[in-house]
Amino acid sequence: MKKIFTLFIFLSAIQLNAQEPADALRFSWYNSSGTARQQAIGGAMTSLGGDLSASFTNPAGLGFYKTSDLVLTPGFNFINNKATYYARTEQKKRYGFAFGTSGVVLGAGTNKKDRKLRGVAISVGINQTAHFGNNLLYRGMNNQSSYSQKFLEEIQDNNDKDANSVASNYPFGTSLAFNTYWIDTIAGGSSGNYQFQTRSPIATGLIQENTVRNRGGISEIAIAGAMNYQDKFYMGAALGIPILYYTKEGKFTEADLMGNTANNFDFASIEESLWTEGAGINLKAGVIYKPVERIRLGLAIHSPTWFSLIDRYNAFVTTHTETYKGLLTQSSDIFTNGEDAEFKYGLVTPYRIMGSASYVLRETEDVRKQKGFLTADIEYVNYKASFFTTDPESDNSQSTKTYLKSLNRAIDNAYKGAFNFKAGGELKFTTIMARLGAAYYGNPYKNIQGARGNKFQISGGLGYRHQGLFLDLAYVHMIGNDIHYPYRLRSGNFTGASIRQTGGNVLVTLGFKI
Q: How does pLDDT run across 13-27, given as a tens digit for each residue?
């Protein structure tokens, strides 16, 4: 039964989630993460090196190691969303634990000046590169459109005029809405020649509410290595294995604004649950060059990540049509033998290119005598390069391929490449370090329906180094803007909620020389 409805689940899950700006970029538009040291300086690590987090940014930075480190980075974050929808603002908060870069670096060096190879290092680390924990709530009064128009458009797209077909062939939305009378046939039709309409009283107004609960993240394991060539050239590469887990629970409700008890509509809602999990693989490579002492130049390239994912999905519709049919409910699991529908597929996320420069105050071979640094990164991410692929061992039919091609075209039309900027610095006072940083993440959306987004971070922290022990503390404060659509229509008016997001992340890195 699951195989029968493979395409249905993909159409529902992807159309309702992956094409929404709040979800479409969730696997690629995220803030940098790492050790407390890296986060305190804005996440800039492409030319700096000497930190385990280089495994996830520019592996060449591991080439600065001539000893070995064991690193642990626990963290705690909080986020507050203010969502404005049709001039009404609601607020929702979320708190949770997270972790930054943790693992081990094994480094070895030589002081022999006649040797061209001055050092090598390898590392094994894990990092939560993306954190999806988030709560969202918005509501407002809308007399322009209804969620139910999505169902009508799906019927129109298929030129479906058969009531029996509509009642059974769209099990993750349209059929549920039809069987509970959120949408209905227009009087005067005949078998195989029906037209359909919504019962939502759009003209007199609807009270709409959307709640979304996201959980999960991407935890990446990296195995990296680097070489130090004459203390001038540093080269490194890393193999990344990201493990992804994401859940989304959403409920959209619209109710009669006027409370008219004679129009055969009180309220309707659709509840959806989506679970996504899987793993992927990527490669990272980079170089760092010191043309003169004190100056470091870095370049890193991250390949796309090739994910193999599986979705599990269900939907539930409730409609109250007052005296017409009363309160009716229907779940998608009646079409799927009581189980969640499943779909296996591939996802390729964008590549990244990073350039960087650092200026080290009092650069010496003995890092204990250095007095600090200034560093800055610029990163380009081509968000429109994301695309979905079929799973050769699952549904590889022509209809699925055709749909994926149209979905990928939609991604090309919705997103664009963007630049991210990160900068920071450190001052060292014997065993104590003070750090500051900032980062700006550019708008990944094309200007469609006013979609825009950006993120800005300011950060700071302290560090302590003494006799093989190091302790770093960082706080990152984030301010962001985004947009979230409860539904999209091919024609007709629809709008999204403007999201103003603030939050913070506290990280502590504890490390030991081994």
A: 333 333 343 445 678
